[in-house]
Amino acid sequence: MEGSKTFSKHFMSRHSIPTASYESFTPSQVKECLAYIQKLGGASSIVLKASGLAAGKGVLLPSSDEEAKTGVEDILIRQVFGKEAGSSLVVEERLFGPELSVLAFSDGYTIKALPGCQDHKRIGEGDTGLNTGGMGAYCPAPEGVPYEQEIHKTVLQPTIDGMRADGIPFVGCLFVGLMLTKSGPKVLEYNVRFGDPETEAVLELLDTPLAEIMLACAERRLDSVDLKIKEGKHAVAVVLASKGYPGKYPTGLPMKIPFAEQLPQGVRVFHAGTKLDASSGKVVTAGGRVLAVSASGNTLEEALKLAYQGVEQIQFEGKTYRRDIAHRALAGAKSSTNGALTYADAGVSIDAGDALVHAIKPLAKSTRRPGCDSDIGGFGGAFDLKALGMRDPILISGTDGVGTKLKVALDANKHDTVGELR
Predict the structure, then answer these.
(1) Residue among 228, 238, 171 at smallest CA distance from 198
(2) pLDDT greater than 90 at residue 203
(3) Alpha-carbon gap, residue 349 to 295, rounded angstroms
(4) Potential cystine with 169: which of 164, 272, 293, 370 (Cβ 3.0-4.6 Å)?
(5) 11: burial class by Cβ within 10 Å (0-12, 13-18, 19+)?
(6) pLDDT the model gives residue 346
(7) 343 versus 142: which is more confidently predicted?
(8) Residue 206 bridge partners (DSSP)
(9) How many Cβ atoms from other residues are within 10 Å of residue 349's Cβ?
(10) Could you tell me if 311 and 290 are in contact, meaning their C-beta atoms sit under 8 angstroms apart?
């Protein structure tokens, strides 16, 4: 389920679990793979996934056909993520919407979920830079709350029932990565374990002893346990990484980590990429993601403040972390409290707009001919009529966002026609 994207996609298809359209390809099928990418609408309409384990880095979102071709060859031919990871490649349609991580306990029959989390995959603030194994998480994620029952009914229970029906009953913690699309939750991936940094955050909200839940799973009696969540609480986890991660990074750097009693109350530090240096007897860095600092509070803001206070007390050379964990939830809360008008408030769906663009891209591409650029998404273009036998006429068109039109109107002091399509 986790070790092979191909296996898990076939499993979801077999048991009618909602997921993106897909095909899988082997190293001998590069030509067929590239053709399938074009069938789905080109590079910006697909996701490339190395089938095997790739340390959280085997998912590529190409922005051009050239990038897609390179990505396919990297995974299948050059096998840059490893021989096992590159044994096959899954090409999926690209989904749009907020992501959600759900951790759930199962005894093979019953499944009970913890509150949904949102992870921060990119290394840079504002969700920029390279993908990582996760730079922080918060929960409960506001976007996931309305979907809790639907996720249980269409994803979690069918997964457990399907695994049992296939002769591989699952006992333990199932981690499901989801995309909350316009047509409902769809599965991105499975992990058959706790996953960080979501675990460090969501376990802060668990009120039932973890050992009690795990024992009930092992004894096939999870239905007898009341999985209690701390009411009205919020939790976050912030990851501290080595400088250079997710690329090359140094190791063996000494660290200053306060004792538990020196940290703010309710703050915990989880070790990941650390080790005890035999010669000095000191804790040193030994990985890309070094530590996770978690905290909970009565509000998301309170939990964040505590976690970052803990982060500031930890020192090592090149300490790298994101200072905007939970920025999406904070932005949503701010807009709902200050009365600011959002696209959603105005009845406009950004996800639906993105979906429409990707749906019509293949149609636009079919109109390509000499003198005509058929790509969608640009802000201007030239239409050369010389290809029709005319004498050097070139039609120019330009478009831009609302903000640009408003700026032009202000500068020109003309508001009655600026922005009209003529």
Answers:
(1) 238
(2) yes
(3) 34
(4) 164
(5) buried
(6) 54
(7) 142
(8) 229
(9) 13
(10) no
